[in-house]
Amino acid sequence: MKLSRDFYNRPTLDVARDLIGKVLVHHRRGVRTSGVIVEVEAYIGESDPACHAAPGPTKRNKPLYGPPGFAYVYLNYGIHWLVNAVTEAEGSPAAVLIRALEPLDGIETMRRRRKRRVSDHDLCRGPGNLTIAMGIGQAQNGEDLCGRRLYIEDRGLPQPEEISWGTRIGITVGTEREWRAFVRSHPSVSGRRPRQSAVARLRRS
DNA sequence: AGCAAGATTAGC
DNA sequence: CTAATCTTGCTA
Q1: Closest alpha carbon to C1' of B6, residue
Q2: A58 CB and strand C closer than 7 A
Q3: CA 20 to 30 Å from A67, out of A14, A119, A190, A198?
Q4: pLDDT tens digits, one per residue of A5-39
Q5: Nearest nucleotide, C1' to the C-alpha of A77?
Q6: pTM of the model
Q7: Which nucleotide is nearest to A74 (CA to C1')?
């Protein structure tokens, strides 16, 4: 079932938590790609120095101030497109950054879009990688997530048992807020992979 | 008009 | 550890 506008029209940390285990879907050129969300980050309001709304309303962050349930897509480091789901009521700038997916549909298409040859678990590992695999870019900025091309749905998958919270990745300000949610020890979660324990290594050898 | 920095990634 | 790459927002 496709998530409704009401789903996004809630406190951002609640939306972030509930997005874990939901499925991001994109239809493009008749091809459907999708994946289970396993990692997200919340960016909340002008008082959050890491949020793009920190400088107040600008041309770029306009979607953040708009109604909930729309996509905010922007170019990062001049190279990577990152996709967010806008949350909270219109005029309240906040969003959830989608950082990693476990691929479900269209894996062959994803593999073609990614130039590198990687394992399935790495196809949508990292916010810049998943937009490439899903075919999401500038054209999807402002797209209605309650429409038919780009949306998030509940497929009734069991809510992952171990949702961990930690500090957000790759920012230099607002690092004290633990607004990153992820499925613990899931292979598609970005960031440095936790060092294998001595026992795990022995077991593998 | 010029400039510094950025919600990343891959390669050395 | 660092280059790649370009838009935004700030300063002049």
Answers
A1: A77
A2: yes
A3: A190
A4: 999 999 999 999 999 999 999 999 999 999 999 99
A5: B6
A6: 0.92
A7: C7
